[in-house]
Design goal:
single chain; SBP; transport
Length: about 425
């Protein structure tokens, strides 16, 4: 897919038939037994660098909700993502100051559930017709141990960005497998040592994991309610070996790439310093504004065999109901409105957020070619991190980046680094 100007407004016209109104179900009250149907409904959403488009969509939903509910005032507060841990912990400890509805990152959910912060809305979603169009792998990002604690509000997926002019100049084909990604990157750097063959870093976990997943590996497996590390399995190590080969002088030199995060990896591509990178649909606006926009294209990151797609991390945010709310019915109804098909489409038009609904994404992909590779990636099947509060510890301690960086620096073999990472994972799971 060669990049073109977005066609989101046109896409929306073809999707009108997908939007149907569904009467909200009545829900049981909060644990206190209180379930007020009037008063102030408090909502927390994340602030954005460019927040105005998001606010316009949310304001429209608020106006619609208030018009349909006499005596209800919806108050929306935008909170910084960086301070979310402290804000949510405070809300869980003091329900009186907590919101009724909140946006949260899907990797944070398990920890919030361990703090009893969000309400079980499984029964509410079971009778909600639009939710039938959310696939199981996407729905699982708002689910812990079979219980639904929210609705996926939008998704983020990563794919392979590449320079059409560079590949054409060297008469190179677009890579069709992960092995070919590395081979193509090596050929580019051999021709031009000043260019990175592919810009992807040792601290870019969500670029590394598709290599592991595509080879049949995983971070960990759940056994009897407890996670056990599998990052050191033979399958995982094959993926790590291939990803580790990228962090080499003939592809992406360790001194440049070992510490690179996802943002830095993509920025190198946008600056014209790399022939390829692994970027997300959330990077498209920055790509449009870059100097390489006219010479860039996107395809799904391929798997281990031609015609396959490497499993991508199912990133995104959800909307949930706080456990301590005294307006549970209203809170669930507002979640269904803002996370319903109509407003997910409006958020796509405003922010480029990929909708969680399979049918909506497919219609968008048919009418907006620049989003098609990301939709194809999600439809091929996504993966997720271990659903446990221990993931916050794993993330904070940098277990997976440290593993990759030790290999890149030559301080450990893949086998050694994977075994060390597995021990650190199991220790965190035990503490979690």
């Amino acid at each position: 897919m060669r990049l073109t100007a977005p066609a989101r407004a046109c896409a929306l016209l073809g999707l009108a038939a997908l939007i149907t109104a569904c009467a909200p179900l009545q829900t049981p009250g909060a644990a206190s037994g209180v379930d007020e149907r009037e008063g102030t409904l408090r909502v927390w959403l994340f602030s954005e660098v460019d927040q105005a488009p998001k606010e316009r969509v949310v304001d429209e939903a608020v106006a619609e909700f208030e018009a349909a509910h006499d005596g209800v005032d919806v108050q929306v507060q935008y909170i910084p993502v960086e301070t979310r841990a402290e804000r949510f912990q405070g809300a869980f400890l003091d329900p009186a100051s907590a919101p009724d509805v909140a946006e949260y990152g899907n990797t944070d959910l398990a920890g919030y559930v361990e703090s009893a912060g969000f309400a079980d809305i499984t029964d509410d979603l079971a009778g909600w017709e639009p939710y039938e169009d959310v696939s199981e792998d996407v729905a699982s990002t708002a689910r812990v141990e079979g219980v639904d604690y929210g609705v996926p509000w939008f998704l983020g997926a990563r794919a392979l960005f590449y320079r059409t002019d560079v590949l054409e100049e060297l008469d190179l084909e677009v890579p069709g497998t992960l092995e070919e990604v590395v081979e193509t990157a090596r050929a580019v750097r051999e021709h031009d040592p000043a260019m990175l063959g592919i810009s992807t870093g040792g601290a870019y976990t969500y670029a590394m994991m598709p290599f592991v997943w595509a080879h049949g590996g995983d971070i960990a497996e759940l056994h009897g309610g407890t996670y056990t590390a599998t990052i050191d399995s033979a399958e995982s190590r094959r993926g790590l070996e291939l990803y580790g080969s990228i962090l080499s002088d003939d592809v992406c030199p360790p001194q440049t790439c070992s510490q690179m995060t996802g943002d830095a990896s993509v920025q190198n591509f946008l600056a014209g310093n790399a022939a390829m990178t692994i970027g997300g649909n959330f990077n498209l606006n920055a790509l449009h504004d870059s100097d390489v926009a006219e010479d860039a294209a996107v395809v799904p990151l391929p798997g281990t065999e031609p015609g396959t797609v490497a499993p991508a991390f199912a990133g995104g945010n959800n909307l949930g109901v706080l456990a301590g709310t005294e307006r549970r019915t209203l809170a669930v109804e507002f979640v269904k409105l803002l996370a319903g098909k109509e407003y997910q489409l409006k958020m796509y038009e405003a922010m480029g957020n990929l909708p969680a609904y399979t049918d909506v994404r497919e219609e968008l992909a048919a009418s907006d070619e620049e989003i098609a590779p990301f939709v194809e990636t999600i439809d091929a099947g996504t993966r997720f991190v271990p659903v446990t509060g221990a993931w916050a510890t794993v993330d904070a301690e940098g277990v997976l980046p440290t593993m990759v960086q030790r290999v890149a620096a030559g301080n450990a073999t893949v086998d050694q680094a994977a075994e060390e990472a597995a021990r650190a994972l199991d220790d965190a799971f035990g503490r979690g």
